[in-house]
Write a structure and sequence with these properties.
The protein is of the alpha/beta class and 314 residues long. Helix content is 35%, strand content 20%. The chain contains nine helices and ten strands. Helix 4 links the parallel strand 4 and strand 5. Helix 4 crosses helix 9. Bound molecules: zinc ion. Zinc ion binds next to loops.
């Protein structure tokens, strides 16, 4: 994931999108019961880190794929597995796998949630102590997957009224964002090979959502690409008491897995805690992106918002 400063968006757009939200039939009154388990999500993150780096082609990547496959088969109605080979700009053949865990696959009203499950082969942030080391990928990788897995548990316990798809994309973080080379591989593949059936009403990407000092600003391309979705999701966050974390402030614009989905016509937003050069992300793309930086409470907040979006969408 990489980016630049984005443009603002106006309050008139916000008003317009609120009207659109009402027309779309969003329930505006009730607060659904809390059902996501942040502590269990933190355990899912710990399990991922125990596999070692999940770099495409590595042993840790293969072990994690086996684990995800069996875990998702036990929870979803159907599991769609996409396997393909990507030849990198350096000529390496990467075995890549996307997993799509589907709940109520025949439902025409659908939501899509996604996260990347791979980790970066190089700790090449400017401040990294050793750029040759892989990124452990606690916040950058494991946190988003942990939220999706916690949601899978909740959806298994109480099936959704609408269709829900949980997409685990591979190869987000393999290559060079500045050259647009070998990055966002899984989301690009999925955008070109979407599941059969209805297009999701919108999609939510979770990335870097587990650190202890969680602040979710409104990512720039989400605001420009799907302003009504941003407004609806932030409104739900406020309704369940998480308005202090989900701030109605413009964040940076990031090249992340929501972009290929937007380009394929899916209204996708990025829920991410990230500011360039800010004090809140000192471990991004460094060897210090480790389990001790994660917080069950932060995963809880994001998982609660995700589940509330599911339960409140009609
Ligand atoms: Zn990354």
């Amino acid at each position: 994931m990489s980016g630049t400063r984005g443009e603002g968006y106006t309050s008139s757009m916000r008003t317009l999108s609120a009207v659109v939200m009402l027309l779309a039939g969003c329930d505006t009154g009730t607060v659904p019961p809390r059902e996501f388990e942040g502590q269990a999500a933190l355990q899912y993150a710990q399990t991922q880190l125990a596999f070692g780096p999940r770099i495409p082609g590595s042993a840790g990547h293969a072990r994690m794929a086996t684990w995800l496959d069996s875990l998702l088969r036990a929870r979803a109605d159907t599991l769609m597995v996409q396997r393909w080979t990507h030849v990198s700009t350096k000529g390496d053949s990467l075995p890549l796998v996307n997993f799509l865990a589907r709940f109520k696959p025949a439902s025409t009203t659908r939501l899509l949630f996604l996260a990347h499950w791979d980790t970066r082969p190089r700790s090449d942030a400017p401040g990294s102590r050793d750029s040759t080391l892989p990124v452990p990928g606690a916040n950058d990788g494991a946190s988003g997957v942990a939220v999706l897995l916690g949601m899978a548990d909740a959806l298994k316990r109480l099936p959704p009224e609408i269709g829900v798809d949980l997409l685990f994309v591979d190869g987000e973080d393999y290559g060079d964002f500045s050259a647009d080379a070998d990055v966002l591989l899984g989301s690009r593949y999925y955008a070109a090979h979407q599941a059969p059936g209805a297009t999701p009403r919108f999609a939510i990407l979770f990335d870097m959502v587990g650190d202890k000092d969680l602040q979710i600003l409104q990512e720039g391309y989400s605001v420009t690409g799907a302003p009504d979705v941003v407004d609806q999701v932030w409104g739900i966050a406020e309704r369940i008491g998480q308005g202090a974390v989900f701030k109605r402030e413009q964040g940076v614009s990031l090249t992340d897995d929501h972009i290929p989905l937007q380009q394929a016509g899916i209204r996708a937003i990025d829920i991410i805690d990230f500011t360039f050069g800010g004090p809140d992300n000192p471990w991004h793309h460094t060897p210090e992106d480790t389990f001790d930086k994660l917080s069950a409470a932060s995963l809880q907040v994001v998982g609660d918002v995700g589940m509330a979006v599911v339960r409140l969408t009609k």
